[in-house]
Amino acid sequence: MSKNIKEAAQIALFQGVDTLFGICEVPVKATADTVLVQVALATICGSDLHTVSGRRSAEVPCVLGHEVVGTVAASTRLRSAEGKLLRAGDRIIWSLTTSCSACHYCLNKNLPQKCETMFKYGHAQCADENTLSGGFASHIQLKAGTTIYHIPDAIKDEEAVPINCALATVINGLETIGTYPGETAIIHGAGMLGIYAVCFLQEQGYDIVAIVDKNANRLQIAEQFGATHTFNTSSTSAEDISEKLKELTRGRGVDLAVEVSGAPSALPDLIEWLGIGGRCLTLGYVYPLENIPFNVHQLVTKCINLRGIHNYHPSVLKSALSFIERSRKQYPFAGLIGEIYPLSDIDDAFAHAFRQDAIRIAVDPLKD
Ligand SMILES: [Zn+2]
Ligand SMILES: [Zn+2]
Question: Tens digits of per-residue pLDDT, 206-256?
Fold first, then answer.
């Protein structure tokens, strides 16, 4: 271990619903077959909120946080996805999940994110070699099988931090379902994923990129990122939105629908709003919920292609970095990060994130 590596890391332990986080010190052991990373910034993702609120179960104690950027802290044998050496001080992002490249899902299904031996950062019980496995900590230790990319110098940490969950998920979903210039789209949910979907579809040459949410502030932000039409579901009925979308699409309905809200009403409404030959991508139902009834007759008679995607193919991180690099002057990505809290104030950071007045709240373990 090099001299400038601390021998202890600080971690924020999630210990269960309605329980404060515990900040504690654990020993750091750099090894040649892992990558020890000094965390620079980690953001609170919607799925962290699902876990902390108890909507989604977690084995406790665990270190949450999977939207993370950091710098390599110690030399390692592992290399980046592009074969480059990982040197101390290099700024990197990495895949949310590890994969083995040899199992049924890796080899035959092209779904390495569902690998049989997959490990998911920020979701594991904190023990032994999984102690430094989440972003709400001073250090995280990346395992073999993690896809790692260097962050181009031009991209700031605030622009890079949501890439390895929110942006990569959106790009993987949209690339899978297909995007075509001149089409029309409706997005359900103006959180981080929805806002990324808006600007990505703008870049793909979409004519109409409409978005719905119940939060007026989020809809305003979506406009800054290129939304052509916004609908507030707290003041506009699904029927009125349907009428308006028909007016915008010569009575046909939209070509592409993207569910990123996780709201039970989203899928039924989107199926209604799609036109014949439409495509519906669903990404937001990442927590267990009751079955959602929707109009299956319309699904069939409108020949709708319905597709779910979970996690993302790690190679998408490259496209995600390129997207931010080429469009960062056009869109205020860094402004999507609201207040930045020190690790010791993680309870306040979560309380703030639950208020939903910022798209992302961040934790900086180097901040006092
Ligand atoms: Zn996430
Ligand atoms: Zn595998």
Answer: 999 999 999 999 999 999 999 999 999 999 999 999 999 999 999 999 999
Rounded Cα–Cα distance for residues 87 and 56 (Å): 37
Q: Which residues surround ligand 1, an ion (CB under 5 A)?
A: 45, 47, 165
Q: For residue 42, give the ligand nearest its CA.
A: 1
Q: How far is the CA of 109 from the centre of ligand 2 (A)?
A: 10
Measured CA to CA, the distance from residue 319 to residue 36 in angstroms comes to 25
Q: How far apart are CA 201 and CA 34, in angstroms?
A: 37
SS3 121: coil
Give the whole-angstrom CA distance, residue 300 versus residue 15: 46
Ligand nearest to the CA of 48: 1
Residue 341 burial by Cβ neighbours in a 10 Å radius (0-12, 13-18, 19+): buried
Q: What is the pLDDT of residue 7?
A: 82
Q: Which two tokens stand for residue 275?
A: 């036109």
Q: Which ligand is nearest to the CA of 116?
A: 2
Span 17-44, pLDDT tens digits: 999 999 999 999 999 999 999 999 999 9
- What separation in angstroms does the CA of 342 have from each of 12, 19, 71, 247? 11, 19, 18, 49
CB 189 within 8 A of CB 165: no
Token code pair at residue 291: 């079955």
Q: Write down the residue that tokens 């999940």 correspond to.
A: 97
CA atoms within 13 A on the CB side of 356: 13
Q: Are 97 and 113 in contact (CB under 8 A)?
A: yes
- Tens of pLDDT along 145-204? 999 999 999 999 999 999 999 999 999 999 999 999 999 999 999 999 999 999 999 999
Specify which residues 69 forms β-bridges with: 41
For residue 182, report the distance from its CA to the centre of ligand 1, in Å. Answer: 30
Other beta carbons within 10 angstroms of residue 71's beta carbon come to 17
> Domains of the chain by range and CATH?
8-161+332-364 (3.90.180.10), 167-308 (3.40.50.720)
The per-residue b/e assignment along 257-281, b for 16 or more CB within 10 angstroms, e otherwise, is bbbbbbbeebbebbbbbbbeebbbb
Q: Which two tokens stand for residue 222?
A: 């979506």
What are 163's two structure tokens? 């890439």
Distance (Å, whole) CA 227 – CA 237: 19
